Amino acid sequence: MTKTQGAAVLGLRGVRKSFGDHIVIDGIDLDVHRSEVICIIGPSGSGKSTLLRCMNFLEEYDGGEVVINGRLLGYSQDAGGKRVRDRDVVVDETRRGVGMVFQHFNLWPHMTALENVTAALRLVKQMPKAAADALGAEMLAKVGLSDKAGQYPARLSGGQQQRVAIARALAMQPSIMLFDEPTSALDPELVGEVLQVMRGLAAEGMTMVVVTHEMGFAAEVADRVVFMDAGRIVEQGPPSSLFGAPSHPRLRQFLETWRQRNAGFATLMSGAADQHLREGNQIHAR
Ligand SMILES: Nc1ncnc2c1ncn2[C@@H]1O[C@H](COP(=O)(O)OP(=O)(O)O)[C@@H](O)[C@H]1O
Ligand SMILES: [Mg+2]
């Protein structure tokens, strides 16, 4: 069975969201199937974060439907068929299956790594301390941080903090994980360790939606890449077609800008390497 033949964990139908009269999400349809990894790319301001936030009702969408594991998120029909917002306890219940990782890790500074991971287990799931600690330790091990359980966030690198944030989301045993530019706030040398953890999750079959500018990661890990512009999905497909044969002009322009920026860097680096060699040769010539 291919991934797309399984049940949809998350389904969006005609989702819309405006801030005042600014339409930010303009009718989005998207199904995410079990074990699928979807990477969302697109220019800044195209609505990627807002879309992700609608997927767990951090933003209340104004139109369309977000369905998680078969349940409409955030709203019900009243007796007259009118849509009414669910009470917060009902919303929380529905979105408990959705884990989210943000660009800024948002760890509690006064709690250790383990306490950060177990806080919601204790408070939301009412899990006894021993069981929460055991599960928390297991999740920290999964992100390679068993030895940091007792550390406070200020003593951890950005990459380690983000891995704690991933462990915290995983501890709730979500059926889908959403990542909003999880490596954008990191020093470049710390990006790899976070992507490595995400690669591991994908390999284990975790269902994931990842907003990212890491095109290499998207090309390697995504089953499907979705390109957004101005609140719409402009093009989507497997990485090979989206990156290899983009058809929409806006996507081609977006990828071209990205290539130029990276090509500029590559030229600079090879220039530096040339100079290094020349200097080396001069030393040898002397
Ligand atoms: N809370 C908000 N209030 C008003 N406008 C917002 C709010 N959040 C986002 N926007 C606007 O919505 C648009 C899309 O933002 P966002 O979803 O953050 O895009 P992206 O993540 O693709 O950069 C932007 O024009 C942004 O200014
Ligand atoms: Mg964003």
Automatic annotation (TrEMBL):
Residues 10-255 form the ABC transporter domain. PROSITE patterns: ABC_TRANSPORTER_1 (PS00211), ABC_TRANSPORTER_2 (PS50893). GO terms for molecular function: ATP binding. Keywords: ATP-binding, Nucleotide-binding, Plasmid, Transport. SUPFAM superfamilies: P-loop containing nucleoside triphosphate hydrolases (SSF52540). InterPro entries: AAA+_ATPase (IPR003593), ABC_ATPase_HisP-typ (IPR030679), ABC_transporter-like_ATP-bd (IPR003439), ABC_transporter-like_CS (IPR017871), MetN_ABC_transporter-like (IPR050086), P-loop_NTPase (IPR027417). Belongs to the ABC transporter superfamily. This is Amino acid ABC transporter ATP-binding protein. It comes from Skermanella cutis.
